[in-house]
# Entry
Amino acid sequence: MNAAWHVKHPMPPKATTEQRIKWHIAHAKHCSCRPIPPKLKAEINAFYKISKKK
# Structure
């Protein structure tokens, strides 16, 4: 576990879906102490499909 990363990058309180997605992607790159939850993976896929269409 990358404790220093967790201290510097807390999940925002009442995070929006976009904030949660960005936090978990950064977390996977810098810490990976646990996998991205399956429900959030689905939200990430949906988010980026929508973002690419804009």
